[in-house]
Automatic annotation (TrEMBL):
GO molecular function: carboxylic acid transmembrane transporter activity
Lineage: superkingdom: Bacteria
Chief location bin: membrane
Membrane topology: Multi-pass membrane protein
Protein's recorded name: MFS transporter
Alphabetical keyword list: Membrane, Transmembrane, Transmembrane helix
PROSITE patterns in the record: MFS, SUGAR_TRANSPORT_2
Positions of transmembrane segments: 31-51, 63-84, 91-110, 116-137, 149-171, 177-194, 226-247, 267-288, 295-312, 318-342, 354-376, 382-404
Gene3D superfamilies found in the cross-reference section: MFS general substrate transporter like domains
Record's subcellular location: Membrane
Pfam families reported for this sequence: MFS_1
Cellular component GO terms, alphabetical: plasma membrane
């Protein structure tokens, strides 16, 4: 008994030392996900400017968001499968190149139709980045730190949001929204470093010869128990994306249009909300590693449902800015756990497929919901449409209670 305890303590002590490889995977994946936040928020903050250029309606703006998310769904499925077959690092670099190319082309779009197509194509790259990066980190970090590590990756998204807000306000507002999108070509330079400085995770290398002729999607539905888990996780990811995109894409538009407040107020709101999100993500990752995935999610989801209903009945800008950080803490704090949560339910030969397919199918469902938000915003108001998000968070809590098992401390297979 004492020998076993000693061996366990020694193993934990050794795994407590973060290796250079783990740091590199964490950095690369965090930067990759920051691109996702940068892209999404540039679109959201530039909505009113783009609408003026192309004379767009609210429904047109909703379609832009949906096109990006539809591309992410297809890209997530495609690149998730490819990453299981050909390697996480290699395919990860492909996704960044695709994103950079078509985001840059958005800057020179002559009309709404071409802009819509480029948004869809850039979404293909975005769809691959999340799951591959999260898989890379999950497979390289120890189980007792896994959720905290993936929460740092999720934090990259918030960094991207802040960079987007600053880019639009200091570049886009002065020189036009096209220059803000032109900045999207810069991440292509990151690819060279990624390919040179990273190797594939050892757990994947041990299986790579077996994976070349396999398509792993069927592993997501291998048994009734796994099928139920996949359905539950898809519901959770759909709600997470529905709430997040609803909040971050439409709230700046509500400030600028319905509340008739100066455009610069969107920057203050974005920064306040993102600070809350960042704190929530870091704390949520720690909570998941300490107390478990399911209780952490259920508590955050219930608080989100209550606070959102209250929030979107407010009209005072100071209240919106200050309470925005609280909303961000709970609504998006949960992003800190999804990378580890998804990784722990599936085996190595299907892990990247599961991460990308489940999260991006959820993102696609959320994309369709943006059209619903646009319709309700047109018929009623944006604040009315967004208040309905409360019910979605209750649905996700039910999924965690009945469909999603606990995986805290689980070793990857």
């Amino acid at each position: 008994m004492n020998i076993n305890a000693s061996m366990t303590n020694q193993a934990e002590s050794e795994s407590a030392q973060t290796t250079p490889y783990q740091k590199r995977t964490l950095f690369a994946s965090t930067v990759g996900y920051a691109l996702d936040g940068l892209d999404m928020m540039i679109l959201g903050v530039c909505f009113s400017l783009i609408a003026t250029t192309f004379n767009l309606t609210k429904s047109d703006l909703g379609t832009l968001t949906s096109a990006t998310l539809l591309g992410a769904v297809l890209g997530g499925i495609l690149f998730g499968v490819l990453a299981d077959k050909f390697g996480r690092v290699r395919v990860f670099s492909w996704t960044i190149l695709i994103f950079s190319l078509f985001t840059g082309l958005c800057a020179i779009s002559p009309n709404y139709e071409s802009f819509l197509i480029f948004r869809f194509l850039s979404g293909l790259g975005l769809g691959g980045e999340f799951g591959i990066g999260m898989t890379l980190v999950s497979e390289s970090w120890p189980k007792h730190k896994r959720s905290r590590a993936t929460s740092i990756v999720a934090l990259g998204f918030q960094v991207g949001i802040i960079l987007a807000a600053l880019t639009v306000n200091f570049i886009g507002e002065v020189h036009g929204w096209r220059w803000a999108f032109a900045m999207g070509v810069l991440p292509a330079l990151f690819v060279a470093w990624t390919r040179k400085g990273l190797k594939e995770p050892e757990i994947w290398q041990n299986l790579k010869d077996q994976n070349k002729n396999k398509i792993a999607i069927g592993k997501l539905f291998k048994t009734p128990r796994i099928t139920a888990t996949t359905i539950g996780l898809t519901i959770a990811c759909a709600v997470q994306n529905f709430g997040f995109y609803g909040l971050m894409v439409w709230m700046p538009n509500m400030i600028a249009t319905e509340l008739k407040l100066p455009f610069k107020n969107t920057m203050f709101w974005t920064i306040s909300t993102t600070i809350g999100m960042s704190l929530g993500i870091l704390i949520f990752g720690w909570l998941c590693d300490k107390f478990g995935r399911r209780p952490s999610y259920i508590i955050f989801l219930l608080i989100s449902a209550i606070s959102i209903w209250f929030y979107f009945h407010q009209t005072d800008m100071l209240v919106l800015i200050l309470f925005g950080s609280v909303i961000g803490f709970f609504v998006n704090g949960m992003m800190g756990g999804y990378g580890a949560l998804l990784a722990e339910h599936y085996t190595t030969d299907a892990r990247s497929s599961a991460e990308n397919i489940i999260f991006n199918v959820g993102r696609g469902i959320a994309g369709v919901s943006q059209v619903l938000i646009a319709y309700l915003a047109t018929v009623y108001s944006i604040s009315y449409a967004l208040a309905l998000l409360s019910g979605a968070y209750l649905l996700s809590a039910i999924a965690f209670i009945f469909l999603i098992p606990e995986t805290k401390g689980k070793a990857l297979e």
